[in-house]
Amino acid sequence: MIYTGKTKLAGVMGLSVSHSRSPRLHGYWLERYGIDGAYLPLAVSEERIAQAIKALPALGFVGCNVTVPHKEKAFAVVDNMEETARRIGAVNTIVVEKNGSLTGSNTDAYGFIANLGDCVGEWRNDQAALVLGAGGAARAILIGLLEAGVPALRLTNRTRSRAEALADELAAGIEVVAWDARSDAVAGCGLVVNTTTLGMVGKEPLEVSLDALDDEAVVADIVYVPLETALLSTARARGLRCVDGLGMLLHQARPSFAAWFGCEPEVDEGLRNFMLADLMP
Ligand code: ATR
Question: In whole angstroms, what is the distance from residue 19 CA to residue 16 CA?
Answer without folding.
Answer: 7
